[in-house]
Amino acid sequence: MNKNELAKEIYSISHLKGSFKLRSGQVSDTYFDKYLFEGNPQVLGAIASELSSRIPVGIDVLAGLEMGGIPIATALSLQTNLNAAFVRKEAKSYGTCKLAEGADIRGKRVCVVEDVVTTGGQILLSVKELREAGAIVEDVVCVIERHPDGRKNLAENGLKLHALFKMEELVAAGADQDVEHQGEGWGD
């Protein structure tokens, strides 16, 4: 699957129509459900194949953020043979009491992995904690850059964003697909 086909597939799987209550409390007639592409093994494999080339040279550990970054980091780990760590929103208070489970991050060059970046708020919180735990974090990879504010906010905090798609690319691929399939239940 090439990058354009992948964009169409992600849009086709994840773009839903109906009535959806958003986090803001507003109701929308469309919704983008990222977990639908993350749970599809063929699409997830194609994402890992495309996204792996965006991981900077010299990275030791891929750090998937809870929850959406974890399947992406796992698929990337399988694709690249890099160790993976799974980053909680907060360290658990029992057992190992770790923020990042899996690979050791102390003194390692860590690339944060996320599915969708909008403002980058959770990434910034997690990177602060990863750095406090001894990780060297300068890079973030994501499947979808939803809004340019995320890139700006990350850059202001010394992080470089490497995105596979901008949301506009997926919407354009979906529009192309809607035109290609008019009369077949698409573009209604």
From TrEMBL:
Its EC number is 2.4.2.10. Residues 44-148 form the Phosphoribosyltransferase domain. It comes from Paenibacillus montanisoli. Pfam families: Pribosyltran. This is Orotate phosphoribosyltransferase. Keywords: Glycosyltransferase, Magnesium, Pyrimidine biosynthesis, Transferase. It is an enzyme of class 2 (transferase). It catalyses: orotidine 5'-phosphate + diphosphate = orotate + 5-phospho-alpha-D-ribose 1-diphosphate. Homodimer.
